Amino acid sequence: MTVFKYAMLRSLRSPVSYLGGFIAPIALILLMANTWTYTPAVGLGFLVTLMMLSAHLMAALILEDRIDGSIIKILISPVSMKRYIFQNLLAAIIPLLTLIVLLVLMGYFRYGWTLHFVGGVWVLMLTCTLATAAFAFCWNMFFNSKNSSNYSYLFLVALVMLLSGLMVPTEALPGFAQHVGAVFHLYWFTRALIALVEYGTNAPFWLYNAIMMMFAIVFLLIGGRRRKM
Question: Taking Cα atoms as reference points, which of 9, 146, 7 lies closest to residue 67?
Answer without folding.
Answer: 146
